[in-house]
Each structure stands twice: as C-alpha cells, then as structure tokens.
C-alpha cells in the first residue's frame, strides 16, 4: 500500500551537509513516486495558521451579496471570491461544492495583517522546498528560487459547506485535478475528504496530520522535470457519515514561477527519455488552465 511520506525539515534547515542530503533524498523519492508529502517542522507558526483559518471562516460566514462584491472577475487577475459550483475542476462532472477566495501578494496588503504575514511565511517555506528540489536534481541550489522571485503566487482560502440537499450525480467537493504551478502548500482542518491518486490509479486518503503542511508538485514542475517529479491527480470527496453536515476548511498556497520563465525540459531529466513536452512560458500555461477551469459560465 502506497503511503504519503512524512518528512522532517529540521534536518535540512539546521544540519550539516550529510543530514541535509538525507532529506533531499527523501524529497526526491516522494516527488518521484507519489508527488505528495507531509512536512514536519516547516517553520510555519501554529498561531498564524490558526489566525488565517479564523479570518477565512469569518469571511465565508458573510452574506453572499457581501462576498459577491469581491467576486472573481477574470483569469488574468485570478483574485477574489469564487462562488459554490462556479468552478468545475473535473470538466466531465458538475460544478464543485465549494467556495473560495483568492489573494495575490498585492491584494494581501489590503486585507489583514495576518494574511500578509502568512503569505510571506508560505513564500519562505516554498523557497526552502524549491531549494531541496534543486539539490535533488543536482542543480544549483537557487535554480528554482530565482525563477520564482516575483512571488507570482496565489493564496486561496477554501470552504466546503455542509450539504443541505443530495449532490447531483457525480458531484463532489472538488473534482479530480492536478495543480497548475510548480508546488502547492496545503493546510487543512480535520474534517477530511482529500484523496490522492497513486501511480497505480488507486485513490488513497490524505488525512490531516497535526503540525504538518502537505506539499504537492504541480504540472509545471512535472513538465520541467520530464515526469521525474509527478503532478498527481487529487480530489475532495463528500463524507459518507455525519461529517457531511460539517463545514470543511482548507488553505492552499499555489506557488508559481515568474510569468516569463520558459518551462523547458531540464537537461538532467533527459537521460532516460527525450523531452515529453514542448517548452512553454509559465504565464501562458497558467492562463490556459484557468480558462479551462472556469469556461464561459
């Protein structure tokens, strides 16, 4: 049975070269075999995470007409409030039973101090993870970090409301999808429902583990590394017990390269097979995926 590994970052951030290399090896294995990992001792403040969850809950508790005043308008901006069923992550299924609020680095400044602090902390952690990726692939340590230095990331608060009526056939809380960027940091409550698809095609649960951050690799990292690191399909299912009456909350930090970075297969990843994908600019890829997700509705 495949399990999502738990990796302790302490040995990378505070240790000598040998211990750091052991962590790098674990990261490589996780990204290569399943594309998901739990990080312990990530350096993120528990209090800050709780503050952001509290802020998120208070926002989603607002009346719909108030939330709609900050509605998501277009894929070029990709910020603001996204209503229930507005997104269809799996194009073959009904709209997702969730609502979301997207924030950019500039947008965070006008919202709340805890959001700004959280965005900055996530950026710092993402840079550390990108550093481990570079070392895992025998690249210069700052190879990925400098290609993400414009902080073109999106902080997304998510609310999956309790179900009042039966879902439509095939409808879930978040449809099967892979993430679009390089990596995602995910913080979730303990209601559950997140599932990850293994390379064998089986779905396994990714329950909340206290004091960890889930990290998964996205499409652009998969393209960059010629599938050495995999971008894994995942989804959020509707619970089949009393938790269906509970709200589920999560916070995702989507880490994306600078728009003008060309995502072309790395030479170090061409030893076993020739490039799978043609080069593409990071910004163009993100735009195409957002357009597909929101369609014309």
Automatic annotation (TrEMBL):
Residue ranges of domain Fe2OG dioxygenase in the record: 150-257
Pathway listed: Antibiotic biosynthesis
Gene3D superfamilies: B-lactam Antibiotic, Isopenicillin N Synthase, Chain
Pfam short name (any one): DIOX_N
Keywords for this protein: Iron, Metal-binding, Oxidoreductase
InterPro entries: DIOX_N, IPNS-like_FE2OG_OXY, IPNS-like_sf, Iron_ascorbate_oxido_reductase, Oxoglu/Fe-dep_dioxygenase_dom
UniProt keyword Oxidoreductase present: yes
Keyword Metal-binding assigned: yes
Similarity comment: Belongs to the iron/ascorbate-dependent oxidoreductase family.
Protein name: Isopenicillin N synthase family oxygenase
